[in-house]
Amino acid sequence: MILLYLKLMRLPQWIKNLILFAGLIFSKRIFDVPSLLRVTMAFVLFSLVASSQYVFNDFLDREEDAKHPEKKHRPLASGALDAGLALVITGAILPFALIGAFLLSKPFFFLTLFYLAFNLVYSKILKHIVILDVMSISIGFVLRAIAGAIVIEVEFSHWLLLCTFMLALFWGFSKRRGEISILKSDAGKHRKILEEYSIEFLDLMMGVVATLTLVSYVMYTVSPSTAKSLGTENMVYTVPIVVYAIFRSLYIIYIKNMGHDPTRAILTDRAVLVSGLLWLLLVLFLMFSNFFYSVPVLQ
């Protein structure tokens, strides 16, 4: 039962909440132990709230999921875990997480509460409205980024928030594309909103948001405010890694046909993981090594 409930919580999806650490990194407080502990606590609490939301969503969608070739294996959709028991356990975890969030930081608590309420609205209304369904998911990622920043009381770059929003849109549209590719003519039977999409339309949307993701990240790296806050004008040298990651993502979606499950696609693709690690190491190097080294920049 415990393993089934852990599966229901979708622990691999916690990777999405790592964006809470972005504010810690870009405020140059990653080596500040109190700040690191606060963000780590925020990560765990926020993840518990998000997992609770997944349980509620799976409870509401269990009949539709039972018709999906992959989702039918989920604990509630398959009937392996009793739905009532799952709700009881979640009813104990969610208040614990919210109380912890309140004790950690009141602004963080209210933002987490808003995230929970927003996802309830998404589950009931927004997920049934074309385009807004994907945009709502992307807003959730922006809320995560803001949550990680406010818990340690730092500002978050508007350009970086925009980049986060666009990247989430990219993977959101890729997921819709993947679902249509797998379900084909049965897509609408599983999820009504899929009838409003087509492969051609989603390809167009993905091309637009992939471009906007790169543009917003480039604008972030060359922004004077970025140079001032990070203490370096050399963030632009991280752009090639981001370009590669975007191109690799397109390869995963179009060649490996894994766009329907972005989390698994990222976690199982070594190239994406290595490029993400290299990007992080380069960012840290550029932010903290200016005392020793500076790359010349043409004015």
TrEMBL record:
GO annotations of cellular component type: plasma membrane
EC number(s) from the headed UniProt entry: 2.4.2.45
Cell location: Membrane
Entries under InterPro entries matching the protein: Prenyltransferase, UbiA_prenyltransferase, UbiA_sf
Biological processes, Gene Ontology terms: glycolipid biosynthetic process
Main localization of the protein described in the UniProt heading: membrane
Class in the EC hierarchy, top level: transferase
Transmembrane segments: 37-56, 76-98, 104-122, 129-150, 156-174, 201-223, 235-255, 267-293
Keywords: Cell membrane, Glycosyltransferase, Membrane, Transferase, Transmembrane, Transmembrane helix
Matches recorded under CDD domains: PT_UbiA_2
Entry annotated with the keyword Glycosyltransferase: yes
Its membrane topology: Multi-pass membrane protein
GO molecular function: glycosyltransferase activity; transferase activity, transferring alkyl or aryl (other than methyl) groups
Highest taxon above the source species: Bacteria
Annotated protein name in UniProt: Decaprenyl-phosphate phosphoribosyltransferase
